[in-house]
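Narrative progress, year one. The postdoctoral researcher (J.K.) led the effort to move from monomer predictions toward full complexes, under supervision of the PI. The following entry was the first complex the group processed end to end, covering 494 residues in total.
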Amino acid sequence: MSGPRVAVEGVSKTFRMHLRGGLELPVLRDVAFTVMPGECVVLRGPSGTGKSSILRMVYGNYAVDTGSILVRSGRGTVDIATAAPRDVLALRRSTISYVSQFLRVVPRVSTREIVAASLSGDGIEAAAALDAATDLLLRLNLSPNLLGLPPATFSGGEQQRVNIARGFISSHPLLLLDEPTASLDARNRAAVVALIKAKKASGTAILGVFHDDEVREEVADRDVDVTAFVPGREAA
Amino acid sequence: MTGEPLLAATGVTRLYGDHIGCIDIDLAVWPGEVVAIVGESGSGKTTLLKCLAARLPPSSGTITYRSRDGAAEDIYRLSEAARRALMRTDWGFVWQDAAEGLRMTVSAGANVGERLMATGARHYGRIRSAAVDWLERVEIDARRIDDDPRSFSGGMRQRLQIARNLVTGPRLVFMDEPTGGLDVSVQARLLDLLGTLVRELGLAAILVTHDLAVARLLSDRIVVMKEGRIVETGLTDRVLDDPSHPYSQLLVSSVLQA
């Protein structure tokens, strides 16, 4: 079972803004890289070069214009670029976790339940899932008296840690991280770094965007320079 | 990868005289999948829902449903008895106006129990305990079991409608603006309830809504309709975060951020 967990090949992406008279914004061209099990690959480049767009395409959240994104799962290899929606959903339940920069949840559901729900695809009993959620949230230094509350009123840093817990609680073999430490203090950054290292040690492939140089140096095995995929001016 | 669809529409068109309801719709729903149909008023989404739910025969095209024994049958060619049995057992309906889906002059318990009796349940004690169980699952105080839904708030009626439909363990639920017309605070609770039930029971659902936030929270896949046609379809978060059709882009960019 060796070989990359995810292999991106020849991927390009152009946004067509129909409300701006069909304006075309080519953002990425010929994106190509792989991530091996147990490896943390970091997408690097200035803001606006399309790092988050790459993560979103790998998650199936953005459409892919050309190329392939092959993800190896327990049930074979799936090309995210062309997979049917239900196959992408099946991959998200079994294989891919994603920590986004935004927490989007059903209102009035408790933090503990939100995090536990990420285990629903893993066949884990509800009580055990809630226990696991509690453990992880406490490791991320969330105050115990917040766990029964919905996260709507939490601070940015607290919401980010809820998002991190949702992504890290399952044992999916591919983890996508979009600036997971952006609004965290030193203590919580250290907690996240420890979690990332533990994931790597257990063989999880990690693809991430980190603005924090210290965190990046601690976790990254390899960088991918995204500016190499930015279409030239003549194309714009 | 996941077998055959539960419900499949092929080339479904429904005209009202010269007026267009929906045109040339191809749509399949797989077991356990929640599909949201979104679009503005008059886009044909409710017409399509009624066609799919065996309530409005299409002018042309076919709709097949795969029953528990695995056979796919045209829902408009079933015998009247078979169609009624389907609607009472395998299918559920949650309408925006709870009065359409409930019997307003009989008790809450009878509203739930009636669907069970229609599937052959006869033991009064068991029917009543199933009704109590379901009222509790939808967070209606069991002491209200003998009250009729006219005395219920809008949110409670909606929850009672859900209990009435889910008590028979349906495989497919049709929902038309299930949170429309409710206070925002009540909507949130109902969304949480619907989301949880759909996940726990592995239901397939077809949800008509004009509210993209509701579609995002409840559905796996989205179908965008405009002037009777499907203009875009795909994974819900993909269509909402990276819409490709001009009309989808307009819809998504028109939502107020709270």
